[in-house]
Amino acid sequence: MTTLILFDIDGTLVTGGPAKEAFEVAMLDTFGRLGNAHDYDFSGKTDPRIARDLLKEVGFSDAVIEEGFSGLWDRYVIELEARIAGTPTVLLPGVEQLLLNLERNQSVALGLVTGNIYRGAQIKLKSARLAEYFSIGGYGSDSENRNLLPAVALDRAREKWGVDFQKESVLVIGDTPRDILCGKAEGTRTVGVATGRFTKKDLMEAGADVVFDDFSQVDEVADLLTR
User: Fold this and answer.
1) Which of 102, 112, 206, 226 fits as disulfide partner to 137, beta carbons 3.0 to 4.6 Å?
2) CATH superfamily for domain 19-84
């Protein structure tokens, strides 16, 4: 085992689901205010960063935000769990077969780097029947700063598998420029996939080493990821 591949979730592995609705309900229930979520750019940010930005915009202090975070995430998880059966996440093209192929490769370990808090990530992955592929990751609940999450995932991978994964053998994969930038900040290789709201050009300009339209050409994608 020499290669560690770290996937983003939303827009990279899956799309859809009730997360935004659950988040908005949880924010209103916990803080009584939501902020301008309609115009806010959620892409590639951690859940705590999103909540903090929206709450500070309407006048909440960092101290009040921190005090309310535990209750917010508890409420969010309850709301997400309650809604996801009716509005499940949907697998993006090629994802299931790609993960199956990579899992069978003895030189590859799989993990996550996602802005989702851990509990939210698990609900989304279980909805898409992907949870079994990912035993480690770096999550929004580990740090509000997405650029710190690849290091968290890398430490967990080294501990789990007892392998000193070298950064040149670690790939961070995502659909937003922030996914690419967080991998670059840690010194890993970076892979973009244009299945979200950003184009291949956007992802290349962010510094991605390679960019795919999607994962539908499974053999080609797997070959490039494990080369």
Assistant:
1) 112
2) Putative phosphatase; domain 2 (1.10.150.240)
Digit-coded pLDDT (tens) for 8-59: 999 999 999 999 999 999 999 999 999 888 888 889 999 999 999 999 999 9
Tokens 């059966």 found at: 85
Other CB atoms within 10 Å distance of the CB of residue 124: 25
| pLDDT tens profile 67-105 | 999 999 999 999 999 999 999 999 999 999 999 999 999
**String of b and e for 139-162 (b: at least 16 CB within 10 Å)?**
bbbbbbebeebbbbbbebbeeeee
CATH class of 3-16+88-225: alpha beta
Q: For residue 31, how far is the Cα from the chain centroid? A: 25
